[in-house]
Amino acid sequence: MTFTQVIINSIVRASELTLLSLGLTIVYDILKFANFAHTEFAVVGVYLALFLNVTLGLPIIAAAIIASIVTGFLSIALDRAVFKRMRSSSGIIVMVTSLGLGIALRNSIRAIWGADAQNYSVAPQAPIITHYFRITPLQIWIVLVGVAAMLSFHLLLHHTTLGKAMRASSDNPELAQASGIATEKIITRVWLIAVAFASLGGILIGLETYILPYMGFAIIVPVFCATILGGIGNPYGAMLGALVLGFAENFGLYVNFGAILNLGGILGFSKELFIPTGYKPAISFIILILVLLIRPRGILGRKKEG
Amino acid sequence: MGLVNFLAYLAIMMGIYAILSLSLNLQYGFTGLANFGHVAFFCLGAYTSTILVLVFKMPFMIGILGAMVIAGLFGYVISIPTANLKEDYWAIATLAAAEVVRIFFLNEDWVVGGGPYQGGSFGIGGIPQPLRSLFSAYTYPFFYLAVVLVCLLATYLIINTLTQSPFGRVIKSIRSGDSLPQALGKDVRAFRMKVMAIGGTFGGLAGCLWAHYHGFISPDQFLPLETFIVWAMVIVGGKANNRGAIVGAVIIMVFYNSTRFLKDYIPIEEVTLASLRMVAIGVLIVVAMIFMKEGLIKEKKTIY
User: Fold this and answer.
1) CB 3.0 to 4.6 Å from B109: which of A45, A183, B120, B182, for a disulfide?
2) By three-state DSSP, how is residue A128 classified?
3) Could you tell me if B276 lies within 8 Å of chain A, comparing CB atoms?
4) What is the pTM assigned to this prediction?
5) Nearest to A235, CA basis, from A193, A202, A203
6) What Cα–Cα distance (Å) separates residue B257 from each residue in A5, B98, B285?
7) How far is CA A32 from CA A168, A231, A236, B139, in A?
């Protein structure tokens, strides 16, 4: 694999992770709990899109958009049914509840659609192959959607009333409410945006690889890691975290650590040393631990509470 | 499988899961540590004991001790980077750590000696059952049940004594925030690490008992799913109550094992049934968290 190829793979992975970690971080920012059902919501969107695309025969773009919006509204309904009752509970209680909700969602999907891998019905597209890299039109789309998501988040946060209200509620919910900001209304919109983006991210991952009921669990660690890496509750941190993680996951397997240990011949370490592919899922965990040790509040983390 | 044998099997499973549930309850119920990777201790205990007894031909007692020591050490080590952090970080760090433990045993078959014992994704079979030759196939489960119950009783007594001691009062104060124990001069970090180590030790014990009962272990038996089942036990039974943790284990195990017979009565596929069972576990956690915060057996509130 060439160096350019590894960079491209990293950027594609970062774009997918961004879509998921942005949603996780804004839910944390407003509702103050780590939502362990977040990636499961994304999988609900993935399977809804599969239903629209394969069973009903809609084109994939329409299926993806409709599925993401429907999943967003589903999350609002589940928020009303579950999380709304626990607004005053501590973060750990709500977090455990979201874990239970995630288990229920994941297994409902498995009960309805089965445990086997499935695929969207899309025409196979010829990849663009050059001497240095190979990229599929889908991967270009993934990066474009990722960049569009980042830009729209920036505009949302700083150039809309909703964004201002969100930032105010995050800093001081009581003050925001006293100033006439309807906190519940903001919460509803945050769920819609967060889960719709997550679902879109999930669908893109499903398009690039395949669809499995357990795919939400497979990405929970990288998504949380990206979110924590940049400072949980900070959307820009989530973007940065996704980028760092995307590169780390791909370069982690590409770099010959033997050459690094050799230090240009000083240590005389002549063996080649690569991280075995089987350990790819462990890379995000190792980075998570390193970050927690060195900068517990993340790269862009701000000191807020004791 | 006859009914009596099935009941013995169910009772053994209840006992093993009750040990897991008691140890998670010490971490979550009493200390407020959101350990989403409890299965790591279970897995480490199972593998350590298997390696000691099967590969190194050590006696069963050494297997138990080794399982407890290694799992306890792991609990201590895993809490080094997280001990000062908030619950959200605990949850994801422990969840990820458990996955790394599983990935390790999935990729490294040399830890079980490779070759004759296989290992890796194939798992390891032929794990010796302690004192097997002294009993018939029919009576052995009852002997093993006795072994499990002795271990459960010891676990209960140790954890119950701990939680009622001054140590228990400190960890309960950690649960409601760091400021109070810190004001009293308690090293919160050290207490969290001790709790993870003690909880891990008993998790390892449960893993050892599990491995030697089934005689076969493989990495896909230690999926995060197991952790969540133990969480359901603690939440339904009643957090911060040791008897509650045992009651929770009994209820969830009965539910989990009785639903497997449903397919004899309703035309339903095995995979679908397994999924629906986990849906029920998830819904149970959500419902219990909303409507039954204290669980079935409430925590005893003591006024000092």
Assistant:
1) B120
2) strand
3) yes
4) 0.89
5) A193
6) 50, 25, 18
7) 14, 13, 17, 54
